[in-house]
User: Which sequence fits this backbone?
């Protein structure tokens, strides 16, 4: 009888230990983990001075490619991104302090440092607008798997740019974490930031 009680207790303890150890679900992996997206670059900020991707090492980076003359998509996407950032800053300021939003133009011919700086400033002082030479922009777009092309037609100064629509969340190590739902709204962006920034 004594032996059977000991065996029963031992079995119960083993079950409790196994339940304890395996009860929690594994943490969700970042959707872009391991993707060949990103890399160091040097572009030009609003003051005409060089800005390197590595300048933001240790911070999460929200990277969006567009252009200031974009009639609809870019301003809306950037508005949603920055609304999401500001919602995060209101609810969890410590997390928002770890995030640097960056706008990179795909239209360096018209988006001079001053122009891209003014465009970025429309959405909040935290957003950094960057431009560069056509060769620099081509290199950084390639590194971030971004497509863009000038749409022919119209006057030389009134053309449109076709480009892919992606808002990347990059980690403190500069590697890709997730795509942000800039096409939705600020709340969706804030939720996704809160999910991955820690």
Assistant:
């Amino acid at each position: 009888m004594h032996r059977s009680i000991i065996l029963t207790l031992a079995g119960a303890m083993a079950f409790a230990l196994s339940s304890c150890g395996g009860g929690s679900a594994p943490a969700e992996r970042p959707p872009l983990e391991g993707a060949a997206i990103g890399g160091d670059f040097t572009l030009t900020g609003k003051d005409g001075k060089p800005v390197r991707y590595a300048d933001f090492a240790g911070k999460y980076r929200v990277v969006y490619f567009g252009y200031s003359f974009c009639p609809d998509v870019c301003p809306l996407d950037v508005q949603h991104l920055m609304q999401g950032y500001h919602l995060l800053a209101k609810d969890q300021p410590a997390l928002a302090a770890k995030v640097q939003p960056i706008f990179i133009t795909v239209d360096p011919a018209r988006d001079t440092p001053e122009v891209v700086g003014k465009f970025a400033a429309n959405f909040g002082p935290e957003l950094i607008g960057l431009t560069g030479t056509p060769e620099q922009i081509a290199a950084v777009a390639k590194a971030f798997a971004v497509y863009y092309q000038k749409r022919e037609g119209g006057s030389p100064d009134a053309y449109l740019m076709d480009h892919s629509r992606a808002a990347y969340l990059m980690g403190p190590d500069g590697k890709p974490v997730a795509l942000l739902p800039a096409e939705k709204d600020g709340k969706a962006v804030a939720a996704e930031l809160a999910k991955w920034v820690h």
Observations:
- The chain is about 35% helix and 20% strand.
- The longest helix spans residues 2-22.
